[in-house]
Amino acid sequence: MSKQLLFLPGPVMVAPPVLRAMDRPLIDHRGPEFAEMLERISAALRPVFGTRGEIAILGSSGTGAMEALVANLFAPGDRLLSCPVGSFGKRFAGIATAYGCIVETLETPLGAAVDPAALQARLRADLEKSIAGVLLTHNETSTGVANDMAALAPMLREHGAITLVDSVSGLGASEFRMDEWGYDAVATASQKAFAAPPGVAMVAVGPRARERLQNPALSRFYFDLRRALEFSHLGQTPWTPPISILYALDVALARYHAAGMKAAFERHTRYADIVRGSLQRLGFTLFSQPGAHSDTIVAAYPPPGVDPNPLLQTLREEYGIVLSGGQAELAGKIVRFGTMGDVDESDFQTAFAAIEVTLRTLTSGVA
Ligand code: PLP
Predict the structure, then answer these.
(1) 42 C-alpha to center of ligand 1: Å?
(2) 293 burial class (0-12, 13-18, 19+ CB within 10 angstroms)?
(3) Residue 221 alpha carbon to ligand 1 centre in Å
């Protein structure tokens, strides 16, 4: 296969030293070297989550971490308020429904972020405090929308519902202050802003969530967070972990912190600005509304008359530039351009040169 440049919403380009980290002999996952690595990884993640609390490392993709949060914190019959702003928010709600929760949806138009006033109004109307939990997506990958997690936090604290956050495509790319904002549990994964391969999910658990883990009415086994946290105190995971992916994540996190968290936030903001500006110059229309733009994924309609599918296909086959299309109702309508991973400004220039030529070919009917 010829060389590809991934601008996907994940997995992303992984730097050679991170890839090389996996080319090492395996170690005993019940031994001291593994314990040291697990502690290093947790310590590196704490400031990124913005927590001093506990972190569970799971062998799974991000969806497993979302399932772990729901399964460990809510029982069948619990009423949850889901606040989707796209497909991944709906997935979170779907998991909760599968676990027997009664899920109400706070509707938000596609392309917009959750309106803090709407969330506040719904929570204030819950005088009996029947809403046990709230499901939020920090960064919605399907629509390129970021929620303002700092602005939403006070409403949630005022109500007191346990709030779970999917930050699979947000954490590491933009600031998150779990303890200060008061979020109870947050899920993320290795293959997005941390620029490691897929296969490891990470969950931060706050004190209120920690208490709820003791609830005997909960059904869980593989993703039992109580057990995961008990084992993490021993420097282990309950089950055999993806050791090679953890090697890669360990190196990726060391590189992440060597460059600095602030630099990572600024880089993603800058790249997203570049992508939005370049796409608009080429005639694309942004899908996300002003003020709701994500720093990790830019979603946009192609110029009028251009079908996203041949555009994406030509970019992939002729130029090795790999972007994503839309999901669910946005399939065949939008393209999605990721800014995460080991890419630099020159890679974006390469991508935009290819997009420009492809658009010219497609609209001249020569394709
Ligand atoms: N949540 C968000 C916001 C995501 O972007 C993704 C993956 O793209 C997921 C959840 C699911 O993660 P995974 O595909 O790792 O299971």
Answers:
(1) 20
(2) buried
(3) 22
